[in-house]
Amino acid sequence: MTKELGKKMACEFIGTCVLVLFGCGTAVFSGCSAENGTGWILTALAFGLSIIAMAYVIGNVSGCHINPAVSLSMLIRGKMNIKEFLFYVIAQVLGAFAGAGLLYSFIALSGKEVTALGTNGFGNVGMWGAFLVEVILTFVFIYLINGVTSDETKSNCAGLMIGLTLTFVHILGIPLTGTSVNPARSLAPAVLLGGEALSQVWVFIIAPFVGSAIAAFAYKLLNEKK
Length: 226
Prior knowledge:
mainly alpha, Glycerol uptake facilitator protein, about 0% strand
């Protein structure tokens, strides 16, 4: 592993840790649910603002993927090789576990029982409904990322646009599945919490990858000139 790749991995680790800690943490401490509109919006904003903050710090080093689905899209479009992809995913998963672990500690230190970590679930839409929701939400998110990161005229505001897109994706997705669109973000809290969240997490790993692949191929077909 080169020094440059090591720096990218460190940035992806930090970025994913921040995303999970602040996004899932806001969901836990704000009481985010379909019935709690305030917590719902705050959680959506926390995920979006985490992306914006990290984009302007680590974007110039690693590209600020902090999401295996984003990295898969870049792999499909030839923006990274398989070795980089695998190392990115390793760093992202480790960062997600670090963020979920810190959140677990914060909840325990507050004197509360750890009964939630911002996990995803099938909710009222069922297994296949959750799968479809996550594919569509991820498609929209990844398609936007491909667009703004491929246009140099949008480079200065790319982080803002990606963060805002993640916010509106969460606004729709939270009452349906809790919104994943990120396999690492879903895996770590589910493993630490266990139970139903862990038994359902496979949907929130596979569906974002499917949505990402569709978005990457759609962008290649519809937007790339060559």
